[in-house]
Structures are given as structure tokens and as C-alpha cells.
């Protein structure tokens, strides 16, 4: 079962599952997802805390594992409205786990985040780095990871938490892409500006302690994320232990570097404006993913930022209004 399977990452994951011979059963409340993005497997509209609906799904399908992509994920919004994030990301996830236990489904793959680390004490960040999230979004992800550790010890629930850095790009077939409302992620905002749908790109802070003063992030192609989830699923299904893994490229790109790359890819000017920093944004987040390579056999196939922007640009040009 793919919870949040109508969203950006969940829809790409469903496609990968289908390619590998699995049947993805998609559950999504469509608050952030798109029905048009569900192209593989049966779809159920509803919340992960909807007990009767989950009972129906688990009764009708021989679910062997659950993948969770249904968290709210905007850092700024989490600072402004933390209750929304604790209710969905913590309370609803707990409800899902409790129903899984009742139905004796003991394999869970969690979409976690690099935001659990907070301001990095060292870069690149390894899995052993101190966990000191600086915003409610990051705290909810870390709390779920702690919950999963406790459920492993108490109930035998086997889980893998995959700590993403910045998901980017689009399905290489041009079928699935990134469509949020409101859109807050840098690359789609840059490409919408290139399409003429926005007048400019806001750069949140130009005085960070980075080479060009803008935030540095580690970007990872959406299909590489899906591949990592596939490997994590196969690890759990083979009876091997779970754990937590960083997913990144060990290479950081600043906001200005992303914009410069998009200008080269699109051939458009892409005007920018520097504005105040967003609350809760660390200056640098770059991953060290050797553990995923060692344990999962995962290695990004599309590590170049230019490739990520090229695939995203193709999708946005073909879908200027998103899925609508």
C-alpha cells in the first residue's frame, strides 16, 4: 500500500512498483495529491487515519508492506501552523501503524527527511549526526522515526526510514512530475518563472555563511528516490533488518547555482529578487549516503543537477497547468 500515492514522490513510487511486478494500492486524501497522477494500481480516496477504509483495504488486498508518503512537508507552514503538522504527521501516522499491527502487517517504509538533523555540525551529514531539528516539520519526522524504533522493540514492526534531501526532477518518461498548490519548492518555482507564469523567483536570504550567500542543498532525482524505496522494500521482504538511511548525492548546490543551471537548460532569463530568510531554514544540508550504498546497494543514476532540471523542464513545458 502506497499512502500518499497521488503525490509527487508517491506517484513515481507506484510506477516503479508496477514496473517491478508489484501491485501498488494507493491511498490518498487528495489534499495535496492529484487523482490524475494515480496511473498504476487501484486507488482509494481517504485518510491514513480512516479505520473503516483501512480495514477494507487490508481485507480486500494481501498487503505485504506499507510505504508512507503522506506527511505535510512545508517548513515555513510548519512554523506558522504546527498543530496541522503534529495532527497529520504524528497522530495520523500512529493511527495507521496501530491498524497495521491489528492486521499483522509488519513491514513499513517511511519517507523521512534530512530536516531531522537541524543545523549541521559537520558536512556532509552522516546518519550518526546529532538529531536537533529546528522546525516543527523536522520534529514530526524525527518523532515518527523514534516511534518506529519503539514499535520495532515492542511489537516487532520492521521498518526503514529514508531521510531525503531535496527531491527534484520528473519521471524520465514525461508522465509524472511535481505539481503543488501552493508551490514552495525551488526548482518548479524557477521553471514556472521560465514559462512566464511568475514574474520572478524569490531568493530567501542572501547573507548565509555559504560561498554565494544563499542556502545550499543536496538534490536527488525523483527516480533515484523511487529506486531506493524499491531496494528498501526488497530488503525488508527478504527478512533483513531495517534502519535509517540518508538519500542524497553528497554534492551541494546553492540557490543561485540552481537558478544559473535552469537558465542554461531553459534559455530563459529567470529574474530573481532577494527577500528575507524563511524561518527554520538551515544554511547547508548535504548528505553522506555511503550507508545506503553499502546496505541497500543504492547509487543515484541521475546525480547531475542539470539532468534533474532537464527532466523537470520537459514535464512542466508539457503540463504548464500541472495535472489539470
Q: What report would you give on this structure?
A:
The chain is α/β, with parallel strands linked by helices and 324 residues long. It has a domain at 2-168 and 219-248: NAD(P)-binding Rossmann-like Domain (Rossmann fold), CATH 3.40.50. The chain is built from ten helices and 13 strands. The strands form three sheets. Strands 3-2-1-4-5-6-10 form a seven-stranded parallel beta sheet, with helices on both faces. The longest helix is centred in the first third of the chain and has 21 residues, at 82-102.
How many helices?
Answer: 10
Q: Tell me, rounded to a whole number, the average pLDDT.
A: 95
CATH fold label of the domain at 2-168 and 219-248: Rossmann fold
How far the N terminus sits from the C terminus, by CA atoms, comes to 25 Å
What does the secondary structure layout of this molecule look like, with pairings?
Elements: E1 2-3, H1 8-19, E2 26-28, E3 43-45, H2 51-60, E4 66-68, H3 75-80, H4 82-102, E5 107-113, H5 136-155, E6 158-164, E7 166-168, H6 186-194, E8 201-204, E9 216-221, H7 222-237, E10 243-247, E11 252-254, H8 255-266, E12 272-275, E13 284-285, H9 290-296, H10 305-318
Helix pairs in contact: 1-7, 4-5, 6-8, 6-10, 8-10
Amino acid at each position: 500500500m502506497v499512502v500518499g500515492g497521488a503525490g509527487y514522490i508517491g506517484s513515481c513510487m507506484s510506477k516503479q512498483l508496477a514496473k517491478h511486478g508489484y501491485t501498488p494500492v494507493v491511498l490518498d486524501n487528495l489534499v495535496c495529491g492529484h487523482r490524475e497522477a494515480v496511473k498504476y494500481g487501484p486507488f482509494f480516496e481517504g485518510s491514513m487515519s480512516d479505520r473503516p477504509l483501512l480495514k477494507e483495504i487490508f481485507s480486500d488486498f494481501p498487503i505485504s508492506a506499507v510505504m508512507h508518503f503522506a506527511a505535510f512537508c512545508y517548513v515555513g507552514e510548519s512554523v506558522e501552523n504546527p498543530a496541522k503538522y503534529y495532527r497529520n504527521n504524528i497522530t495520523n501516522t500512529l493511527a495507521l501503524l496501530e491498524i497495521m499491527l491489528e492486521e499483522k502487517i509488519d513491514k513499513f517504509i517511511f519517507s523521512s527527511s534530512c530536516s531531522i538533523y537541524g543545523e549541521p555540525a559537520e558536512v556532509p551529514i552522516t546518519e550518526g549526526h546529532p538529531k536537533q531539528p529546528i522546525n516543527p516539520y523536522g520534529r514530526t519526522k524525527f518523532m515518527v522515526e523514534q516511534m518506529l524504533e519503539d514499535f520495532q522493540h515492542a511489537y516487532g514492526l520492521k521498518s526503514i526510514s529514508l531521510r531525503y534531501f531535496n527531491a527534484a526532477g520528473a519521471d524520465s518518461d514525461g508522465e509524472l512530475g511535481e505539481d503543488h498548490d501552493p508551490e514552495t519548492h525551488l526548482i518548479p518555482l524557477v521553471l514556472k518563472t521560465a514559462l512566464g507564469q511568475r514574474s520572478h523567483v524569490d531568493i530567501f536570504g542572501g547573507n548565509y555563511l555559504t560561498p554565494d550567500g544563499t542556502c545550499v542543498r543536496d538534490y536527488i532525482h525523483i527516480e533515484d528516490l523511487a529506486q531506493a524505496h524499491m531496494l528498501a522494500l526488497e530488503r525488508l521482504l527478504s527478512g533483513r533488518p531495517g534502519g535509517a538511511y540518508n538519500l542524497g548525492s553528497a554534492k551541494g548546490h546553492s540557490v543561485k547555482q540552481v537558478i544559473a543551471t535552469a537558465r542554461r537548460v531553459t534559455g530563459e532569463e529567470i529574474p530573481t529578487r532577494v527577500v528575507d530568510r524563511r524561518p527554520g531554514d538551515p544554511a547547508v544540508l548535504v548528505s553522506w549516503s555511503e550507508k545506503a550504498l553499502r546496505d541497500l546497494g543504492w547509487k543515484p543514476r541521475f546525480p547531475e543537477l542539470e539532468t534533474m532540471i532537464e527532466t523537470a523542464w520537459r514535464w512542466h513545458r508539457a503540463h504548464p497547468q500541472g495535472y489539470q
